[in-house]
């Protein structure tokens, strides 16, 4: 293994996020993404759909630390993935929502050097296990139309598009982004979720 190549995702440990101890690591965490493809809204009088669109120039997205810190404080599940050197290389945040009997995944982030190696699937399984252990029948989440890789990841994991919100984000701060809502039934505890 070369020095610039990270070890396999199997060398990861999961532990609860400690907001005080992990604040500096979460502040430094690179949750950004770059994409050359997005989804655009295809609207009709009483219908909404999505169409894939290739961009002329790459789109760069960064998540403000204050947004992540707020999600950590509100989370019923806040799990960090640590590499062999105890560095946070990913995390999942989720809130239990009794009013709609769901576990809302409010954040699932994987460091750039760890993407595409199964870590996102492992974090998603942790959220799924949390929901199953508490008898929560649905997993829900929201992502952006610009997060092409995340949309494909969630669809592969068995999530289905259940809503499009063209006005959730303030265009003065988020430009052309809009919200995509996904959900999935929680597999029974111990049952295998869709393969990732």
The proportion of residues in beta strands is 35-45%
- Compressed to H and E, one letter per element, the order equals EHEEHEEEHEHEHE
Q: What's the CATH class label?
A: Alpha Beta
The coarse silhouette is globular
- Total domain units: 1
- By oligomeric state, this entry counts as single chain
Termini separation comes to 24 Å
Q: Tell me the major beta sheet.
A: 7 strands, mixed
Major beta sheet, strand line-up:
1-4-5-6-7-9-8
Nearest-angstrom radius of gyration? 17 Å
CATH architecture: 3-Layer(aba) Sandwich
Report the structural category. alpha+beta
What would you say this structure looks like, in words?
- There is one protein chain.
- This protein is of the alpha+beta class and 196 residues long.
- It has one domain (12-185): Gcn5-related N-acetyltransferase (GNAT) (Aminopeptidase, 3-Layer(aba) Sandwich).
- It is built from five helices and nine strands, in the order βαββαβββαβαβαβ.
- The chain has helices spanning 19-28, 65-74, 119-133, 148-156, 171-174, and strands at 13-16, 33-43, 48-61, 77-82, 88-97, 102-110, 138-144, 160-165, 179-185.
- The strands form two sheets. Strands 1-4-5-6-7-9-8 form a seven-stranded mixed beta sheet, with helices on both faces. A two-stranded antiparallel ribbon has the order 2-3.
- It is globular and about 50 Å long.
- 28% of the residues are buried.
- The model has no long low-confidence stretch (mean pLDDT 91).
């Amino acid at each position: 293994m070369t020095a610039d190549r990270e070890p396999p995702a199997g060398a990861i440990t999961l532990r609860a996020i400690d907001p005080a101890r992990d604040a500096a690591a979460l502040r430094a965490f690179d949750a950004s993404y770059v994409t050359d493809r997005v989804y655009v809204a295809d609207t009709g009088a009483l219908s909404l759909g999505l169409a894939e669109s290739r961009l002329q120039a790459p789109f760069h997205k960064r998540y403000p630390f204050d947004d992540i810190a707020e999600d950590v404080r509100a989370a019923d599940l806040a799990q960090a993935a640590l590499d062999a050197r105890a560095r946070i290389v990913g995390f999942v945040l989720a809130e239990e929502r009794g009013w709609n009997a769901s576990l809302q995944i409010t954040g699932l982030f994987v460091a750039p050097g760890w993407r595409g190696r199964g870590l996102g699937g492992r974090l998603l399984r942790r959220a799924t296990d949390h929901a199953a252990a508490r008898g929560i029948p649905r997993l829900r989440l929201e992502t952006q139309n610009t997060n092409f890789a995340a949309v494909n990841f969630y669809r592969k994991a068995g999530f289905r598009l259940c809503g499009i919100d063209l006005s959730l984000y303030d265009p003065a701060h988020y430009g052309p982004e809009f919200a995509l809502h996904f959900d999935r039934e929680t597999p029974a505890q111990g049952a295998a979720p869709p393969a990732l």
